[in-house]
Design goal:
The chain has 149 residues and is an alpha/beta fold. It has one domain (2-135): Rossmann fold, CATH 3.40.50. It has helices spanning 10-21, 40-50, 86-103; strands at residues 2-7, 29-33, 65-68, 75-79, 106-110, 123-129, 135-140. The chain has a seven-stranded mixed sheet with strand order 1-7-6-2-5-4-3, with helices on both faces. Strand 3 and strand 4 form a beta hairpin.
């Protein structure tokens, strides 16, 4: 199942992330694709808010991953932007996936293009700029059960 959502501002981005968090389970994998500045990290902040994570959510671009443990479900936020080598990206992904399994965490991955072929079951969020303002979100649910009401 795929749904399309138009988002006008940061508040709506955070709210959409929060709504999605209620659909996620431990070991869920969420892939976030979109251009620089599209709001991927802001969307992760919304997910974290929905999970009652009290830590500040920042982009893990330089550290590759951030782990958040204070919520109802742990969250691992991975950013593969700086990796241009498939084997390096896969090595980082498999390490973080193992950690997510052990900790029963949700794994959210920004810039997942290099590792998507090795993942079987995942949510996929594609973000694009709207013509004048805002963002378009295309959300794919791995179990085809998605509804937002």
């Amino acid at each position: 199942m795929c749904i399309f959502v138009f988002i006008k501002n940061l508040k709506e981005t955070l709210n959409l992330g929060k709504k999605l968090s209620h659909k996620l389970n431990p070991q869920s994998i969420v892939l976030l694709q979109g251009p620089i500045g599209a709001g991927k990290t802001s969307f992760v902040q919304g997910i974290a808010k929905g999970l009652s994570i009290c830590e500040e959510i920042t982009s893990p671009t330089f550290g590759l991953s951030h782990h958040y443990n204070s919520g109802k479900i742990p969250l691992i936020h991975l950013d593969l932007y700086r990796l241009d080598n498939v084997s390096s990206a896969r090595e980082v992904f498999f390490s973080e996936e193992e950690e997510a399994i052990q900790r029963q965490a949700i794994l959210v991955i920004e810039w997942p293009e290099l590792i998507e072929p090795v993942i079987d079951n995942f949510w996929k969020i594609e973000i694009s700029y709207a013509n004048n303002f805002g963002r378009h979100y295309e959300i794919r649910d791995p179990k085809n059960l998605l509804t937002f009401s």
